[in-house]
Amino acid sequence: MAMNTGLDGPLSGRLLLIDADAQTAAQTGESLSRAMLCAPLVEIARSGRDAIELLRAHRFDIILADMPSLADIAERDEESMSRIVRLAEGALVIAMASGASVSAAVGAMRSGAHDYVTKPIAGPALATRIGELAQRHGRPRSLGLDTARNENVADFAGFVGASSAMQFLYEQIGRVASSSAPVFITGESGTGKDVCAEALHSQGPRAAKRLVAINCAAIPRDLMESELFGVARGAFTGAHEDRKGAVELADGGTLFLDEVGEMDLSLQSKLLRFLQTGTISRVGEANMRKVDVRVICATNRNPLQMIAERKFREDLFYRLHVLPIHLPPLRQRPTDIMVLARHFLDRYAREEHKSFGSFTQESAQQLTAADWPGNVRQLQNLIRRIVVMFDGGEIDIGMLDAADIESQAFAPVTVAPSRSETRRAILPMWQQEQKIIEDAIAAFSGNISLAAAALEISPSTIYRKRQGWSELPKAG
């Protein structure tokens, strides 16, 4: 039975579903099959003993095991799961149970399971999760999500992606958009913070009004106040007429402050006053004006670090940090890479009036394995460069290498580093701690309880540390 790997290569696949409840097993198998590009060959075992017989007779690519259904082969859940894993011969093993038990999840993972999910199971979400696990664990025999049948998940308000991390983001945007409370967006450069701000505006009740964006890092300090709050006629040389600032222009709508941490400290105090009172005064004017805007901020830096360095006011941060949203880096959602690559290829091929095929399996594997320090923006630029440089056809490794100028420009120099350079390469403890915690949370699809259990710390510790961690600085 053929199925799609997400890398343009149909491969054979076999799935073993272990569940004592026949009705639940049938529903899970049917739901999962509908979410696949090609339905896998599903075998159902009603008990642990039945599963062992099937595992000895056949080779499976994926095993979904309901942990209570394995009780007939060992007294302890971990022992029964270990027996299944030993017979799996490299298959992806996913443990299932009806309750979100942290201890059960940790036990399953310690026994060799690759993941733990709770029942009931949604086919599309599980299919996406399987694809991510296949990429992470280097399993070539993987199941792909049928994004053509799930367009509402793969394309949402300007975002493209169907991974579980992006589905969680879409849910966040849907919940947060209707509020008027401030939103604090964080994420590495190129992850789409501006797209997130536009999505929050377009999905909310202020969509009919304006979204006004200001890049706080791109405007000179001496002009920033007038750009933000406006200027009165005669306030300074050249101010020949009254002019509204971004806040007034966004009245009734949304104000997006990109790279808010780059704002001058003196202006930060005026921004804080506006957030507290809802009033502003133009430069050179004494009158106060009432303004109703929803404020969305974004930064690619660690706000707590900026506070510690006295570059960002702590009181302003907590006034803005009401509804935090973190955008995951592209390297943490590898199943989205080819979805994005094909999206950009179709888009730019139409713009350039060229005809391109798809990606060879080798080129798709190279794209998926890349680290993408520039995230979606880097991938977008690469695909656009390929479309401009070549006339069409199937995209192969040679095309990728010719167009990948970022990797060529920043290729490591093969010179032994000095002792001081080696010391500089060591990350600060707080930065390493952030990366460890955020990677663990991503590995458990945002489930902080499971991530805490895997790290052997309490969930409250993660919540306390994440209170101010809104950005994961990239290591290296």
TrEMBL record:
Q: Which residue intervals define the domain Sigma-54 factor interaction in the entry?
A: 159-388
Q: What is this protein called?
A: Two-component system, repressor protein LuxO
PANTHER family, alphabetically?
PTS-DEPENDENT DIHYDROXYACETONE KINASE OPERON REGULATORY PROTEIN-RELATED (PTHR32071:SF117), TRANSCRIPTIONAL REGULATORY PROTEIN (PTHR32071)
Q: Which UniProt keywords apply?
A: Activator, ATP-binding, DNA-binding, Nucleotide-binding, Phosphoprotein, Transcription, Transcription regulation, Two-component regulatory system
Question: Molecular function (GO) terms listed?
Answer: ATP binding; sequence-specific DNA binding
Q: Does the keyword Coiled coil apply?
A: no
Response regulatory domain residues: 14-134
The record's section on InterPro entries has: AAA+_ATPase (IPR003593), AAA_lid_NorR (IPR058031), CheY-like_superfamily (IPR011006), Homeodomain-like_sf (IPR009057), HTH_Fis (IPR002197), P-loop_NTPase (IPR027417), Sig_transdc_resp-reg_receiver (IPR001789), Sigma_54_int (IPR002078)
- PROSITE patterns listed in its UniProt record: RESPONSE_REGULATORY (PS50110), SIGMA54_INTERACT_2 (PS00676), SIGMA54_INTERACT_3 (PS00688), SIGMA54_INTERACT_4 (PS50045)
Q: Where does this protein come from, organism-wise? A: Devosia crocina
A Gene Ontology BP annotation from the UniProt entry: regulation of DNA-templated transcription
* 4-aspartylphosphate carried by residues: 66
